[in-house]
């Protein structure tokens, strides 16, 4: 049966570049957002470039799976501090999963 109201969360995989050229897969639990809320999120981000990456990601990330540290705002901040290119892959994973794009192995 088609659900008019989607589940409040869904998962996606971000491919995070690690030092030395390796790529790690980070399985994230994302928050579902309506079209209007997502547009407001993007408009706010564009109007407030001083907003931290952490605050932006906390708007869409609810948790993660198979990580050696439990999810928290502090742990997400540590991820941002330890890996140099996190925001783009997380946002890409969010929009791919939100659209229902199939992820390869």
Task: Describe this protein with a few key phrases.
3 strands; alpha+beta; 105 residues; 4 helices
Structural write-up:
With 105 residues, the protein is an alpha+beta fold. The chain has one domain (25-99). Helix content is 40%, strand content 22%. The chain contains four helices and three strands; from the N terminus they run ββααβαα. Strands 1-2-3 form a three-stranded antiparallel sheet, with helices on one face. The protein is globular and about 45 Å long. It starts with 8 loop residues before the first strand and ends in a 6-residue tail after the last helix. The model has no long low-confidence stretch (mean pLDDT 92).
Give a brief outline of the structure.
The protein has helices at residues 35-47, 53-58, 73-82, 87-99; strands spanning 9-17, 23-31, 61-65.
Question: What's the Cα radius of gyration?
Answer: 14 Å
Order of helices and strands: EEHHEHH
Mean pLDDT value = 92
**Helix share, percent:** 40-55%
Shape summary: globular
Q: What's the domain count?
A: 1
Overall number of strands:
3
What is the count of helical runs?
4
Break the fold down into its secondary structure elements and pairings.
Elements: E1 9-17, E2 23-31, H1 35-47, H2 53-58, E3 61-65, H3 73-82, H4 87-99
Antiparallel strand pairs: 1-2, 2-3
């Amino acid at each position: 049966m088609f659900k008019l109201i989607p589940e409040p969360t869904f998962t996606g995989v971000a491919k995070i570049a690690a030092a030395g050229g390796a790529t790690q897969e980070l399985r994230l639990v994302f928050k579902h957002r309506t079209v209007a809320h997502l547009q407001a999120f993007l408009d706010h981000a564009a109007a407030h470039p001083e907003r931290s990456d952490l605050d932006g990601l906390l708007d869409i990330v609810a948790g993660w799976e198979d990580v050696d540290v439990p999810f928290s705002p502090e742990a997400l901040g540590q991820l941002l501090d330890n890996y140099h290119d996190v925001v783009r892959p997380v946002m890409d994973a969010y929009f791919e999963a939100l659209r229902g794009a199939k992820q390869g192995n």
